[in-house]
Specification:
- By secondary structure, this protein is α+β, with helices and mostly antiparallel strands.
- The protein has helices at about 5-20, 25-40, 60, 70-80, 95-100, 125-140, 180-185, 200-205, 265-270, 275-290, 300-310, 315-325, 330-350, 355-370, 375-395, 400-425, 430-439, and strands at about 45-50, 55, 90-95, 110-120, 145, 145-155, 160-165, 165-170, 175, 185-190, 195-200, 210-215, 225-235, 240-245, 255.
- Helix content is about 50%, strand content about 20%.
- The strands form three sheets. Strands 1, 2, 3, 4, 5, 6, 9, 12, 13, 14 and 15 form an eleven-stranded mixed beta sheet that branches.
- α13 (about 330-350) packs antiparallel against α14.
C-alpha cells in the first residue's frame, strides 16, 4: 500500500477509465484516497465545519460541498420540524445525493433526514405527539407559491386494504394524501368489499417508516425539485431510555447536519447506535443493490449504493472510479429522469406553480437531453418530452399527462441504465461484485 491506496490497483482503475472515456483526475483520486484513509484511522469520527456550521461523519464530510448550502438550508426551513422545549428535540441533515454534492453534480432530489426525539411519559404519549406534529407539519406546508405537499408515509397496513384500483398488503407503509391527512383518516375496503377506515392517530401508534414528500420551486431560478424528509423518531422515557419507534436507530454514515445547535441531540442519540451499525448499514445497502441489478433494474441507483458500500468497506479504488461516473455528462440524464416525475407530481397535485414555470422546466429537460445526446436517441426522447410539454399546457387529461411522463422516463432510464451498466462492468472488480449480487 502507498499512503492509503494500492498503486497497482489505482493504475488498473485509471486504465479502465481511459478505455471507457471516463475522465478520471489521477491526482484528485490519490488525494481523496489518502484523505479517506486518514479519516478512517482518526479517533475523532465526526468532523465539524465551523465556517459553514455543519457537521457529519468524517468520511461523509469528504463528499460534501458548501456550494449550494444556502439553497439546501432554504428548503430545509420548509421541511424541518421545530423543537418544542422539554417535549421534542430535532436534528436536520442532508442525506443521499444532496449530501454528496461534491461528486454528484446532477442530484435528482433534495433528500433530508431528521432525528426527532420525543420526550414523553409513555410510548403512547410519544406516538400521540408524533401524530400531532406530523399532521401540523403536513397541513401547514400543504400548498404555497413555491411548494406542494405530495404525500406522507405514517404507519403500516394491518390487513389487506383496497383503495381505487390498488390493493395494499399487510405491513406495507401507508401513504397519505393531503386531503386524507386533513380528514384524519383513509377510507377504503377490505378485499371482500367491506368498508374500512384507517384513523391517523391509530396508525401513528406503530409509526414505522415516517417520510414527507414535497415538490418545491427554487424562488430565485424557478427550477423544480422533489424534496423529502425521512424521520428517525425516538422516544425518550422519564428514566432516559431511548427507544426507536420504528424498532431501529439509524446510523449516521451518510448525513450532513445543517445546524450546530443540533450537536447536543445528535451526541445524545448517537451513543445508542448499535455497535454493529456499520455492518447492518452495508448489509441494507447490499440488499438494495441486489434489487436494482435484478428485479427493478436501475444501474444508476445501484451505482450510488455501491459507492457508499465501497467507501465504507475499504474498496477505495473502485469507489474513486464511481465518484467520476457521477460527474459524467450522461449522468445528467438521471436528473432528467427524476425531474420528469417531479413536474408530473406537481401537475397531478394541482400545485400553485404557474403553468409557465412547469413548461419552462420541461423546456430545460429537453435542452439537457440535447446537450448530452447526439444521436437518434435524442430525437426519440425530445419527441416524448414535447408530448409531455403539450400535455402540461393543456392539462385537460391528467391521466394522459402521466402516460406521457412515464413514456419519456422510460426512454431516459433505458439510456441511463445502459450508460451505467457499460461503465460499471468495465472494471473487473465491480463487474464481479454485480454478478455476485445477481446470483
Amino acid at each position: 500500500m502507498n499512503d492509503g491506496y494500492s498503486t497497482k490497483e489505482l493504475k488498473e482503475i485509471i486504465k479502465s477509465a481511459k478505455r471507457m472515456n471516463v475522465e478520471l483526475d489521477e491526482d484528485g483520486a490519490k488525494e481523496w484516497m489518502v484523505a479517506i484513509r486518514k479519516a478512517e484511522q482518526s479517533n475523532q469520527k465526526i468532523t465539524f465545519d465551523e465556517r459553514n456550521g455543519v457537521f457529519g461523519q468524517n468520511i461523509a464530510m469528504l463528499d460534501f460541498s458548501p456550494e449550494r448550502l444556502d439553497y439546501f438550508k432554504l428548503i430545509g426551513s420548509l421541511v424541518e420540524f421545530r423543537d418544542i422545549p422539554d417535549k421534542v428535540e430535532t436534528a436536520l441533515a442532508l442525506s443521499g445525493s444532496s449530501a454528496q454534492s461534491k461528486i454528484q453534480r446532477f442530484p435528482g432530489d433534495c433528500d433530508y433526514f431528521e432525528r426527532v426525539n420525543i420526550i414523553a411519559a409513555s410510548k403512547k404519549e410519544a406516538c400521540d405527539t408524533l401524530a400531532e406534529i406530523m399532521r401540523e407539519k403536513a397541513l401547514s406546508t400543504r400548498q404555497g407559491p413555491t411548494y406542494q405537499l405530495i404525500e406522507v408515509k405514517l404507519g403500516s397496513y394491518q390487513a389487506p386494504f383496497v383503495q381505487r384500483n390498488d390493493t395494499y398488503q399487510p405491513e406495507s407503509p401507508i401513504s397519505w394524501r393531503p386531503d386524507e391527512i386533513e380528514a384524519g383518516k383513509k377510507v377504503g375496503f377490505s378485499p371482500d368489499g367491506k368498508p374500512v377506515e384507517i384513523i391517523w392517530e391509530e396508525a401513528a401508534q406503530e409509526p414505522g417508516w415516517c417520510k414527507l414528500d414535497w415538490v418545491v420551486a427554487d424562488p430565485i431560478q424557478g427550477s423544480l425539485a422533489n424534496a423529502s424528509n425521512m424521520l428517525d423518531v425516538t422516544w425518550e422515557a422519564p428514566d432516559g431510555t431511548i427507544t426507536p419507534l420504528d424498532g431501529y436507530l439509524d446510523p449516521y454514515f451518510q448525513e450532513i447536519y445543517l445546524q450546530k445547535e443540533s450537536i447536543p441531540i445528535f451526541s445524545k442519540l448517537s451513543q445508542h447506535v448499535s455497535a454493529d451499525a456499520m455492518d447492518e448499514y452495508v448489509h441494507a445497502l447490499e440488499k438494495e443493490v441486489k434489487k436494482y441489478v435484478t428485479k427493478h433494474k436501475n444501474y444508476g441507483k445501484a451505482a450510488k449504493r455501491m459507492y457508499n458500500i465501497f467507501r465504507l468497506t475499504g474498496k477505495y479504488e473502485s469507489a474513486v472510479y464511481l465518484r467520476e461516473l457521477f460527474d459524467e455528462p450522461t449522468s445528467m440524464l438521471y436528473q432528467v429522469w427524476s425531474l420528469i416525475r417531479t413536474v408530473d407530481d406537481a401537475v397531478q397535485a394541482k400545485a400553485d406553480f404557474q403553468e409557465e414555470q412547469l413548461i419552462k422546466q420541461a423546456d430545460e429537460l429537453m435542452l439537457n437531453v440535447i446537450r448530452v445526446l447526439e444521436d437518434a436517441r435524442e430525437a426519440e426522447i425530445v419527441s416524448k418530452l414535447l408530448k409531455f410539454r403539450d400535455a402540461i399546457s393543456k392539462q385537460d387529461s391528467y391521466e394522459k399527462l402521466s402516460v406521457e411522463a412515464e413514456a419519456a422516463r422510460g426512454e431516459v432510464i433505458n439510456i441511463v441504465n445502459n450508460f451505467f451498466y457499460d461503465k460499471l462492468t468495465a472494471v473487473p472488480e465491480i463487474k464481479q461484485y454485480i454478478e455476485t449480487m445477481q446470483t
